[in-house]
Amino acid sequence: MRINQYSIAKTSLEQKFRELKKLHLLRGNEAAELDPSQMWLTLLARTHMASEQPIAIRQWLHDFLATPDLAIDEWLEHDLPLTTEVFYFVAFQLLHFEPGVDFNIDHPLKDWAHIGLPFNQHTSWSTADVLEAFYLLLNTRTKDGQSFIDQLTSEGFMAWSYRLPPYKKPIYFNGKPLASFDPAKFIREVVYVETDMDTDYDGKADLIKVEILRPSDSNNSLKVPAVFTASPYNQGTNDEWGEKVTHHVNHPLTHKNAGEVAPAEPKFPQHFTHQEIKGESKHATESFAETPAYTLNNYLAARGYAIVYSAGIGTKDSDGLQTCGSPEQTDSMKAVVEWLHGDRVAFTDRHSGIQIKAWWCNGNVAMTGRSYLGTLATAVATTAVPGLKAIISEAAISSWYDYYRENGLVRAPGGFQGEDADVLADETFSRTKRPADYHRIEKTNNKYIAGLAKAMDRKTGNYNDFWASRNYRPAIKNIKAAVMMVHGLNDTNVKPSNVKALYDGLQELPVTSKLVLHQGQHIYINAFQSLDFSEMVNLWLANKLWDQDNHADETLPKVLVQDNTQPETWWTYDQWTAGSKKTLYFNKTELTENDPQLSTEYRFNDQQTPETFEKWCKNINDWQNALVKDNGKFSYHLKTAPVDQDLLLRGTPEVNVTVAASTDHGMISVQLVDFGNAKRLTISPVLMNHNGLQLGFHWASDDLREFKLQSNLSNFKVIADGHINLQNRHSAAEVDDLSANQFVKVHFKLQPIFHHLLKGHQLGLIIYSTDFGATLRGNEKITYTIKTKDSFLMIPGVTSL
Known about the structure:
By secondary structure, the protein is α+β, with helices and mostly antiparallel strands. The protein is 25% helix and 23% strand. It has 22 helices and 31 strands.
């Protein structure tokens, strides 16, 4: 087991003592009056939440080992001085590690260091040493996936603080607000923010429903920041409808003619009316019981952040249509930030005209969320809207073309063959949940979706104005908010190219950016045992939203990456790409650093038997395994020699391929593969404790998870891929002609990587055509010929380990 902590801020000794007093752990003149052992026992007793009675505390201490042979009370009878070994032997148990299971009782300090827990070493202990070490212990992660201070707060350690006057809150510890806000008294209210658009063509500005969860202290002079999650899924989805409108993909690619232009996207009215303001109130007239919640937000709510959710236009209880990533959708979410900052009108209900302001908000806003949610956070950040101080953008799209298309091809996000922008719009159009409302808007929505479907252009797969309006990358230069990016290196849904483009753009700006790359697919990482992600976010947002001078930017790493070869291991870096660039040439079936000069041709045919084709359509894993084992029938394989040392590969690989197709259309796909027998990390995190991670006292919980090594060896892992239409050799927007058997040179980027290649493993390249999990599946009898001359792979950022 290893635990990695990056959220512990540097704090002076004087500040540590002040904070311990503020928590009632240190009282009066105890620092001067008590000897080290007395101080230690006093601190221990005050962390016992079950009872304050001396007899109960004595019994509790009797069940802790101070040494391999003595309980704490027995050790005290020997009148021995406190030692580092005794302090951390007990600390292990306080953090819920089991003696003899999680650590060796004869060598606790060795295992403490192996696990990665922070500690103070002393040859002899003073009372000040005890206080400093206990302060650090409170910041140390438990086996249960939270800091010791958070474990205590979940047991009621901070319940006394609920009664404090609002001006004494939040209570900060090590630069982070503690859970000092009573969840039982959270205020739940609904407002309707007015936008500056009319996306349902009714002549009136669209209103969008906003749900707010905030501490009761914000009703009594405490101004709190807002954490806003823009989620089109928040008010429900049309899953069955989405399945019905999913596009068929089992049909051939076709030849494209230059000059083919898709119809323009439907335009929305420019003239409409705003609702007349007829009064103002400080009190919302609507509430809500529950709303789909992000557990990181639940963690933050108990620490004083107001949590805000909105599904935006085209959703239940809001106006407008679903537009899938359009500027209008961005602006609808931007409007919520503007209202929180005090720059936009909202109403207590849909019709009365009674205005309500976010008078409880300090004007500072952050946006959070994964996938579509993180995408909208990124999109809103590119508008430079005032008040948006930070975003935590997880598995977010930075260009929708890179989500549903690639280099002139229709390409599905992993696991969602046949989905497209129109399908996602239908799935999230939750106005269907109000039957009468949907009846009134049905024809308008059907007409709009039909126009959207034509504009997105599944016929050619080209980049066009529809996709340009959903490309946030040109506007990255406008970002003023601090950005924390989180992405899975194995995410086949929102692929890593999306975060790499955002990361690269931010490096040119005078804004703070942080990048966390994990080994998962399309997941959240705020409940990992091995990483203090929630505490990192709390530290960061305390700085950005509460204006705490806690050195968050200096404390948190610039780039944090989970290792792919061993569990529970994270590394810090200054940047994504660094190291030398290697060019690997095609030499028959080998990838070599020396250009062989000689040219060889390799052919493969893309067609499968009907039985095999049907089988692979139903089970993508069967296709993937067959592809890796293929002997040249439907793919071309190349490999390096086994590497003689561990290598780290960082950046975006690129390939040049000289290829011909036996027809006037075709596509090439490529996989970059790590070949070598190894126990690799599980594809998804393993559940360790259902609802075992408590997010506050009598509040919400989360499932504790962690990646583990698979029980069996595997002999390969795909680490990147790429696809290109042979008629889009120069750009995704430009069509090139293609004749049967015409050799053309294609150059394209694969997905970016940050990969640890073990000694003895081989780097492989598989060139093929149909990707059964992503591209159209025509099963045509097309023969592809690869000419090795001028064909090569470029790997950036190669460093030895």
